[in-house]
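ASSEMBLY PREDICTION REQUEST
Request ID: AP-0331
Submitted by: J.K., bench scientist
Number of chains: two
Total residues: 635
Priority: normal
Notes: Please return the full assembly, not individual chains.
Input sequences:
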Amino acid sequence: MTRPTTARRCARLAGLMVVAAFISAGCTMEPRPENPQSGASDAAMVEDGNVLPSHAPDRFDFGAEASAARVAMWDIDVRPDGEGLPPGQGSVAEGREVYMIHCVACHGPTGTEGPNDRLVDSEQWDDVPTTRTVGNYWPYATTLYDYIRKAMPQLTPGILTEDQVYAVIAYILHLNEIVPEDAVMNAETLPAVVMPARDKFVVDDRIGGTGVVR
Amino acid sequence: MSGSDRSKLSRRAWLATTSGAIAAGVVHTQSDAIRLVAEETPQQVADPTRVPGRFVSEIGSRAAAENPRRLMRTQALSSSSRTPLADLMGTITPSDLHFERHHAGIPDIVFENHELLVHGMVERPMVFRMSDLMRFPQVSRIRFLECSGNGGGVYSRTRMPTEVTVQQMDGLLSTSEWTGVAVSTILREVGVRPGARWILAEGSDSAVMSRSVPLDKVMDDSILAYGQNGERLRPEQGYPLRLFNPGYEGNTSVKWLRRIEVTDQPTHTRDETSKYTDPLGDGTVRQFSLTMDAKSVITFPSFPYALPEQGWWELRGLAWSGRGRITRVEVSTDGGRNWVDADIQGPILPKATVRFRHLFEWRGQDTIIMSRATDETGYVQPTVQQLWDARGERTSYHQNHQRAWKIARTGEVTFGLGELV
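STATUS: Completed
Returned structure:
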């Protein structure tokens, strides 16, 4: 479909807009950059348009610059390379104490009983996972820190100290036979843990179109 | 009418028309029921032309007899509720019937106090209050939102249900007009540094729900939404601010949004590793399967309704694609042997539901009705066999295969996919 001329676009705008001043201003303006969705239909240009007019300033200066302290207060995510992990550490033995107080009610005495998500299964799988636990499904150990610090325990999130989070991770990894009983988790050791299922994860290859169903 | 005398009314119609009448022994057949309604309705209802009506009011409500309801899973912090698709018309979901999926309940947030932190690989880390965000140039888009878990209940070959409603099967789908500021406008304001590839979006619920989203995506068409269907967001939809990623699985459209970090790599949060990933049956797990592929579902007739008599009926349904516009919807009224184009109600918007309709004459035979959608990329909604072949039979999420309804001789409608596989 050919792209409409500026005149045609203004005519269509005129059909849509009832404010005469807007029409005259709109039609004397420079042509706007074309819609980035090339090949989009006429309807798309009315519907989607550009989100900023051509005369928008480079910066609006709405909002306030965030101080380093302000960013640090909320920047609590942890990545697989360890970025975001805080100081501190915790052992398997310490983690058992934390688990039996804060986790056991929802995840069971050995991490397998529920009623909420099963955490422990060291049995690996070939074609299809039978369970999706930390031990046989989670690809990165750092995700445990990111998630537990943010969301656990479910009824008292945020109650655990940084050391306690490290400790309970050490315990859960030990239950899954991924780290030994004397393991200590900290900002160096946690990102170094290689999870059994890590290499099973592949990038989405669905692309739409008429090709093979993926 | 002899054929349909033996047919049964839908459960809903049966209840609506015969409560008390069955006990009184005056209703034995569907024809009796229709006769009963025709005779009694005028006597039961006051003549509205002889009674002054009600005054104006500050806020409206549905007619007393109209009672659409979401279907709740469990009363729990992590739970969901589903949109009653079969009760709805057109494409827009009334906001109070929009599906819900919360991972730690619905937080109470004060609009004036809410702030969005944008930082990471940016020139200027910034904090925006709602009044700041609302002052930026605004966009509105009609788009669907669908949980990628939708349809998971009709995928298992060995546990294919027959008595499943559209709401149970596909009710994690809703469509709204979303209003807010384009993410590209805000990232332009803070200045994205070279090398950035992803964002991390984080909510201020007690799960601090977090998802990584490709930077290209959010720069293309994502919205920081504060409006839905003409009003501010509802609390269960993320009040006062949510990320909205058109065409992406619903979980990425993080609600109660408080932070965006621009990054060079995904964060691999729990909800993009342990959850929302798709084992493919060959030892691999598909990750970041974000786009919702084309899909359609017939919403009428569907279980538990029943066609009360032979004759002309209009099939009605919804079709949508996360990759753009729907270009075609075909329907079959003979179990997939023959397909004809359904009528699509315009306007056809990208990444939005369209309503399709097809008039057909039911002559009282056993049959199976189906629909399949095609989107602007040429992608055709696959059969369940095609998905089984591609992904195995024990995958999770993104089950967008063709649905089927069986119409029995009695007019009763049940889920019919099990008849075809």
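REVIEWER COMMENTS: Chain B touches chain A through 79 residues (CB under 8 Å).
SIGN-OFF: pending second reviewer
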